[in-house]
């Protein structure tokens, strides 16, 4: 029986991989990696190959989605195979689909978890993780068409007082990485269309940049201020707070430099 292990690389650079993940990769016959689902801004592929002491075969979005991972599955049938994944391995549905396909073919699968942007962005924001509702991705506009899904998800969460974590679209093969400013412009454009006062210039939000790096940025402010704030290089994430506990308000002020008056929003 073959084996396919999904190993999380963490968030920022090659040294973020766990010791367990590193050992799993060293023991593998073949190692694959994908870097299109998330940006690891300081990863050095040659250094990563040095750590695991073997060549890494980088696969594309087409390999995993259009060709349904056949290249990986064919190798995994014959021996120990590892797929290195940014962040935590099963956060992307692509990887879940590949794991299902492997199991159905009699290929044993295993998981080595890594740090995830979900826990990292929430932790850096200072907000309480059990008060988050459904998360959502803000996609790039295609041909000028706006996808209202992120706006609607934020609205649904706001109605019940829950926070919203927004992932920002990336097109790794095009080297396009959405910024917080880009995302806010899209949401403001949707606000002009829908006029439900979900994301206005006076809406509180939290921008998170380069989570997992030595110098991450977490800045809380009103949308009109965040649009002018320099978050630096991607990857970026965005959080829209719902109802605030007094400790959350204190965390936003102390840890994310939010305006002092947001304490008045807390209960």
Q: How does this model look, in words?
A:
This protein has 267 residues and is of the alpha/beta class. It folds into two domains: 3-112, Tetrapyrrole methylase, N-terminal domain (Cobalt-precorrin-4 Transmethylase, domain 1, 3-Layer(aba) Sandwich); 117-265, Tetrapyrrole methylase, C-terminal domain (Methyltransferase, Cobalt-precorrin-4 Transmethylase, Domain 2), CATH 3.30.950. 34% of the residues lie in helices and 21% in strands. The protein has ten helices and twelve strands. A five-stranded parallel β-sheet has the order 3-2-4-1-5, with helices on both faces. Strands 6-7-12-10-11 form a five-stranded mixed β-sheet. Strands 8-9 form a two-stranded antiparallel ribbon. The relative contact order is 0.15. The model has no long low-confidence stretch (mean pLDDT 95).
What descriptors fit this protein?
5-stranded mixed sheet; alpha/beta; 267 residues; 2 domains; Cobalt-precorrin-4 Transmethylase, domain 1; 21% strand
């Amino acid at each position: 029986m073959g084996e396919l292990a999904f190993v999380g690389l963490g968030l920022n650079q090659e040294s973020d991989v766990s010791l367990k993940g590193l050992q799993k990769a060293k023991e593998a016959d073949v190692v694959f990696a994908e870097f299109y689902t998330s940006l690891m801004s300081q990863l050095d592929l040659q250094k990563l190959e040095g750590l695991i002491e073997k060549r890494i075969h980088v696969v594309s979005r087409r390999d995993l989605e259009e060709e349904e991972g056949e290249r990986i599955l064919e190798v995994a049938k014959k021996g120990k195979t590892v797929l290195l994944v940014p962040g935590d391995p099963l956060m992307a549905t692509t990887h879940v689909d590949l794991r299902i396909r492997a199991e159905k073919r009699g290929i044993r699968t295993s998981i080595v978890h890594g740090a995830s942007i979900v826990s990292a962005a929430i932790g850096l924001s200072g907000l309480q993780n059990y008060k988050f509702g459904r998360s959502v991705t803000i996609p790039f506009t295609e041909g000028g068409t706006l996808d209202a899904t992120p706006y609607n998800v934020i609205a649904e969460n706001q109605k019940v007082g829950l926070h919203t974590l927004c992932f920002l679209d990336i097109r790794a093969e095009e080297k396009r990485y959405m910024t917080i400013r880009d995302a806010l412009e899209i949401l403001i454009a949707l606000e002009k269309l829908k006029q439900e006062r979900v994301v206005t210039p006076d809406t509180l939000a939290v921008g998170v940049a380069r989570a997992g790096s030595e110098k991450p940025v977490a800045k809380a402010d009103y949308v009109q201020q965040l649009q002018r704030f320099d978050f630096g290089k991607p990857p970026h994430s965005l959080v829209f707070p719902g109802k605030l506990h007094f400790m959350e308000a204190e965390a936003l002020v102390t840890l994310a430099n939010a305006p002092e008056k947001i304490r008045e929003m807390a209960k």
